[in-house]
User: Fold this.
Amino acid sequence: MKVLVATEKPFAKVAVDGIREVVEGAGYELALLEKYSDKAQLLEAVADADALIIRSDKVDAEVLDAAAKLKIVVRAGAGYDNIDLEAATAHKVVAMNTPGQNSNAVAELALGLMVYAVRNFYNGTSGTELLGKRLGIHAFGNVGRNVARIAKGFGMEVSAYDAYCPDEAMVAAGVTPVHSANELYETCDIVSLHIPATPETIKSIDYALLNRMPKGAILVNTARKEVMNEEDLIRLMNDRADFKYVTDIMPVADAQMRAFEGRYFATPKKMGAQTAEANINAGIAAANQIVDFFKNGNTRFQVNK
Ligand code: 3PG
Assistant:
């Protein structure tokens, strides 16, 4: 049985060591394909893999066609928009994620981006503080909850909108529930995005929604670039000199966005989940899920049912 770890953006070594321990401890073989630059390398590497661990690496029909022996692919992380779920099902491949395992890392980065933005990207000018600012959390999942916890430590007033989360869960976390995205954006100085990229959310963050935000607004995106309507974002940044956009996922329109100097920042590479702890948590969870699947048929975290 061969488990392939295919990570264009590699895990920390300590996490790979942990994955190896789990995989080899179960009597399986571990193969590594890190920092690959060409899809052909992935197509070649998956040819004899029974199981695959990935991060944001794309697993589409072509990859699945090339993976004749593959039975399971685990996205070591939360969002699985990089896996073609229908193709996985058609190829009889179980697809899983590892929810919650990297969420604190992403949440800490979201707060880091907020501090960076309110301090004017450390350019030497006087900024503002997070204390007392109104933070809107758009989607109250694992990352959103961690953002709320940390933001409360900063003394922020936290509210959240999530159509799929009951008010009680927010109230229990000391967060004020609001009942529409419009209300969230209207009432918050800073909005932090934690929605997945789905057919419903893609391009949903548009001009009309963003323009509801008050003067001096900041949008923080540690979720997905696909949820942004980038044309609208550029139009809004042009129309509103007070608006800042800070993101961990470089927009397609990065070159155009760079025109908004002092109001736009994107990490050169997605860094939210790039900590030793998150790599260990998500990577080892993925390895354990694979072993549990092969040994006990456990499909608890399957996302292509
Ligand atoms: C996730 O969905 O888990 C995060 O976006 C992290 O993605 P990464 O593993 O590619 O850094």
